[in-house]
Amino acid sequence: MPLLMLKDLPRYECLLEAAREFPDLDPSATEVFLHLLRTGDEAFRVVESHLAQHDITQGRFGVLMALWGNCQREGREVPLGPAEIAERTGVTRATITGLIDTLERAGLVERTPHSDDRRMTSVVLTARGEKLLLKILPAHFRQMAWLLGPLSEPERKTLVRLLTKILVRAGESPAAAPPEAVLANTPGR
């Protein structure tokens, strides 16, 4: 589901006009924000379309990648619990339960009793799950490269640096800062 329900973004002049009615509206920040969401939606659509060809959703793919990535990083399979998978994929524990259920029914993951605590379960990628990932990933990586193809290497590094700044700010709580501080940290004000 798209984050931004606008296909056609408002022109900058419209944002300037709206700022007269809403003094807290920063036209350039709003323009960048809308473009960021719109671009994210389109990138999501491209990936979602590819995954649909393999009858898998973004959420399920995220779980498979978390398990596969864990295996690759450790050099051996290290089972993860559902709570750990939820944390790594950024979804709630309730959501992760449904994703794991679906993946388990498809034979792509397997729940096993936790080695230290029998009340807990671990989730591991099955051979079938790994085979599916190895089928999906080459074209997935080609699509990423294609999508970012218009950017030079220095532009990509700049984009990562800029997006990281936004990501760090998003992790902060705007409610903790008084409105004057928020405006004081806004360029052009």
What does this structure look like?
- The chain is mainly alpha-helical and 189 residues long.
- It has three domains: 12-53; 58-143, Arc Repressor Mutant, subunit A, CATH 1.10.10; 151-189, no CATH class.
- 63% of the residues lie in helices and 5% in strands.
- The protein has eight helices and two strands.
- The chain has a two-stranded antiparallel sheet.
- Helix 1 (12-21) crosses helix 2 and helix 4 (82-89) packs across helix 5.
- The protein is globular and about 60 Å long.
Quick take:
With 189 residues, the chain is mainly α. The protein folds into 3 domains: 12-53; 58-143, Winged helix-like DNA-binding domain superfamily/Winged helix DNA-binding domain (Arc Repressor Mutant, subunit A, Orthogonal Bundle), CATH 1.10.10; 151-189, no CATH class.
Give the arrangement of secondary structure elements.
Blueprint: H1 12-21, H2 27-52, H3 58-74, H4 82-89, H5 93-105, E1 109-113, E2 121-125, H6 127-147, H7 153-171, H8 179-184
Antiparallel strand pairs: 1-2
Helix pairs in contact: 1-2, 2-6, 3-4, 4-5
Secondary structure category: mainly alpha
The mean pLDDT is 85
Strand order of the largest sheet: 1-2
Helix content: 55-70%
- Taken together, the total number of domains comes to 3
CATH domain class name of the largest domain: Mainly Alpha
* Low-confidence parts: none
CATH homology superfamily of the largest domain: Winged helix-like DNA-binding domain superfamily/Winged helix DNA-binding domain
Please compute the radius of gyration using only Cα atoms: 21 Å
- Could you state the order of secondary-structure elements as H and E? HHHHHEEHHH
How many helices? The count is: 8
Give the beta-strand count: 2
Question: Judging by the overall fold, what is the CATH architecture of the largest domain?
Answer: Orthogonal Bundle
Q: How much strand?
A: 5-15%
The major pleated sheet works out as: 2 strands, antiparallel
The CATH topology of the largest domain? Arc Repressor Mutant, subunit A
The end-to-end span amounts to 35 Å
Molecular shape: globular
